[in-house]
Amino acid sequence: MEDGNTAKPKSSFDEEALIQLHSFNGKKVAKVVCYLWQNLVNPNDPVELIDGLELRFEDNTRLNFSSDESGEGLSVRPYSLKEENELLNNEFKGKIKIFGLDASSTKMWQDVIGKTLIHIRLTKEDGLYLNDSVLLDFETEPRTLAISPMDGLVIDYYEE
Question: Global pTM?
Answer without folding.
Answer: 0.88
